[in-house]
Write a structure and sequence with these properties.
The complex is a heterodimer of chains A (253) and B (195).
Chain A (H helix, E strand, L loop, with lengths): L10 H5 L5 H13 L1 H16 L10 H12 L12 H5 L3 H8 L15 H17 L3 H13 L4 E6 L5 E7 L4 E7 L8 E8 L4 E7 L6 E7 L7 E8 L12 E4 L1
Antiparallel strand pairs in A: 1-2, 2-3, 3-6, 4-5, 4-7, 7-8
Chain B lengths: L2 H4 L5 H15 L3 H23 L2 H18 L10 H21 L4 H11 L13 H10 L4 H11 L5 H8 L3 H19 L4
Helix pairs in contact in B: 2-3, 3-4, 3-5, 4-5, 7-10, 8-10, 9-10
The chains are: A alpha+beta (253), B mainly alpha (195).
């Protein structure tokens, strides 16, 4: 049995800015998908800000003038707007590639034993998907089936460009569900291909291409019990029997 | 703690003023920005100075923070916390980033070990006149256990990572994580913070 994910205990450390940079990145990715942690972090951050009170200290007089002069010469950022679908779709693959490629340090892997938490987290994720995606029902069903397996494991990986991948795997069922959001389409005449990676070879696990809303749900089948990782490459249209490019993403199991 | 104290997490006048000012700053209002500066500069400078110690470096980083506040004001999201929290979070984060970039070239373990001998843990009892808010925070800090308080203070005021704190106190990482979280939760409850 996989130990319960203690990533949730990092809220205090994070609010105190005491996470090393690499762990900070992973935890921020986790916050994107975990409402409970995100709420707690908001509260603990407000609490941490109060710790400034006891060390309040008169700022040097020169600071005021320098700040006001500097502001005068600084352009303000525009407010954030809700991006239109077209503008998201125009985001290119390479950003994502750079972020996720083989970087286990930047990757957050959530292995979940006691599933109750993962189920809540994923069902809220699924709820969102249902609103917008046409195959929501199929996706929910596929995911619930795998989640119901006693050995189901959830892996979450996020890139700094907003790509979030949730992977649920069950070795005993020999299948899993790969759900990506915010993932740009493959380049023209190419496709993404998924691989079940073993010690000495990679087994093809199907091709996929995110829809206009940059979402994709793909069922993974294969010999998962002996797999060491799940990988994604870009292949020429029609796929390849073995990977011909470096993986864009590798989720170690 | 008396029930009526829990009702005000932040002094009402200050909080309202800061939010209001920040909204005006978002519209490019330089006068509002000057007022916001007056409202928060001692806190921003204080926290940065506490972490960095060096006065001129602290002033430089404080300036960066306020320029960031000006730049990012149009992107402030109220639902994620108060204006004061937003600014102070930015200030602390900047100070920490500066500590880390300065330390990057050195042997951190070595450094932590050396500091261990110099000053294991100094309590927060510094200058600055005791205002109401200050007193409330100090009082809330006494609700923490000694080890929780130590972990929280080493992280927040000294700018150590939790790994460095674990090393310094020769305590398992998991224990430090828990101390920091439990300590912050206690503090949150004692201060009646709701978001």
């Amino acid at each position: 049995m996989t130990p319960p994910p203690d990533i949730h205990t990092l809220t205090g450390v994070y609010a105190l800015d005491a996470l090393p940079d690499d762990e900070r990145e992973s935890f921020e990715a986790h916050l994107e998908v975990c409402d409970a942690c995100s709420q707690e972090v908001t509260e603990l951050r407000s609490t941490a800000a109060l710790l400034a009170e006891p060390v309040c200290r008169a700022a040097p007089a020169s600071l005021r003038e320098n700040v006001l002069l500097a502001a005068e010469d600084t352009r303000q950022l525009p407010p954030r707007t809700t991006p239109a679908v077209e503008s998201i779709a125009s985001r290119r693959v390479p950003v994502w590639t750079r972020t996720l490629a083989l970087s286990s340090a930047a990757a957050l892997v959530l292995a979940v034993g006691g599933l109750s938490f993962a189920v809540t987290e994923l069902s809220s994720r699924i709820d969102e998907l249902e609103v917008q995606a046409s195959q929501a029902e199929e996706r929910t069903q596929a995911m619930s089936d795998v989640l119901a397996a006693p050995d189901a494991e959830v892996h979450t990986v996020a890139g700094d460009d907003g790509t979030v991948v949730n992977l649920v795997l069950s070795a005993t069922q020999g299948r899993g569900v790969f759900v990506a959001e915010g993932m740009a389409s493959a380049p023209p005449e190419h496709t993404y291909e998924l691989w079940v990676i073993h010690e000495n070879h990679a087994q093809p696990a199907g091709m996929f291409n995110p829809d206009a809303a940059e979402r994709i749900t793909h069922t993974v089948t294969g010999d998962l019990a002996n797999a060491v990782a799940i990988g994604v490459t870009i292949e020429p249209e029609g796929g390849s029997p073995e990977p011909t490019t470096e993986p864009l993403m590798r989720i170690d199991l | 703690m008396a029930a009526n104290r829990r009702l005000r997490a932040v002094p009402a006048s200050g909080a309202v003023a800061a939010e209001h000012l920040l909204r005006q700053v978002a519209h490019g209002d330089a006068a509002a920005f000057a007022r916001l500066f007056d409202e928060l500069s001692d806190l921003v400078y204080g926290v940065i100075r506490r972490v960095l110690r060096d006065p001129s470096l602290s002033e430089e980083v404080s300036q960066e923070v306020f320029v960031e506040v000006w730049r990012n004001a149009p992107r402030f999201e109220e639902e994620r916390g108060s204006a004061r929290t937003w600014v102070l979070t930015m200030a602390h984060r900047r100070a920490i980033d500066r500590v880390r970039s300065e330390q990057a070239s050195r042997d951190r373990t070595d450094r932590v070990g050396r500091r261990n001998q110099e000053r294991a843990f100094d309590a927060v009892a510094e200058q600055a006149e005791l205002n109401d808010e200050h007193r409330r925070v100090n009082e809330a800090l006494t609700t923490l256990t000694a080890v929780q308080r130590e972990a929280v203070e080493l992280a927040y005021y000294h700018g150590y990572t939790y790994r460095e704190v674990a090393e310094l106190l020769d305590t398992p990482l998991g224990t430090i994580k828990t101390r920091m979280r439990d300590g912050m939760i206690r503090l949150r409850d004692a201060m009646g913070v709701t978001r």
